[in-house]
Amino acid sequence: MPAWSIQNHESFMEMKFILDVHLGRLAKYLRLCGFDSLFSAFYDDREIIEVAIMESRVILTRDRLLLKSATMATGYLVKSQYHEEQLREVFEEFGLKQHVKLFSRCIACNTLLEEVRKEDIADRLLADTRAYYDRFRRCPGCDRIYWEGSHYDNMKKSLLPLL
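Request: output the structure for the sequence above.
Response:
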C-alpha cells in the first residue's frame, strides 16, 4: 500500500515533495512532469524535515537515517540509484501517472511557468529561435525562457516510456 494516496487529501494539487542531496536528478524530472519538488544540495536533514512538516511535503530520500529522524513527516525511501527507475518508482508509489503536466514548472527553480508573448522577449532570443517558434513560456522566479524546440521533443520522448 502506498505511503500516501489521493484519498488522504481534498485535492491532488496538494502533493508536494522535498528531495535530499542524493536525488537532484529525480527532482529535475519530477519538475519536468509538473510536480512541486524542492531540492537543494545545501539542505541539511533538519531543514528537510522542518520544510516537509511546515509545507506538507513528502520527503524523498535514499538516506534511511533521514527517514528515521523524520517521525513527524511523511517520507519515502527511494530504492533505485538510477533516475529513470527512481521516477518510475515514485510514480508507482504515489499514483502520479494521471496527474502529469509536462513542462509546466521551471526545472531550475520549481516555479510554475507563465505564457509570454514573443514580442516581449524577442530581444532575448537567438535569430533561429525567433524565426521558427511562436509560443514561449517564462519562469517568473528565475526569468528563464522555454519553448518547444528539438530539446522539448527529445525530453518528451525520453519521459514517455518512464510514465
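The chain has two domains: 6-99, 114-147.
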